[in-house]
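INFO  loader      accepted 1 record
INFO  loader      residues=81
INFO  predictor   begin
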Amino acid sequence: MKRWYGFLVVSAISLGALGVLSLYQTTTAAPPEVRLPFANSVEQRFEMIRTLSEIRDLLKEQNVLLQSGKVRVMLVEEAKI
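INFO  predictor   done
INFO  writer      dumping tokens
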């Protein structure tokens, strides 16, 4: 009779452990976004190239305007208080 109790206890513990372990599953949550410690140098270069191209285009427009002779410059002296 004692053997049956031992067998029942071991079986109950095994079934309990199996039940607990069967509830374990890997998470379905998305992994956190990977944030690099430094900025992306390739993106920075392209941004600098875009900015410099815009500046170059603006300077070309300014030079055309200045060379046309249609620009009037008026100097105004501010009152000193």
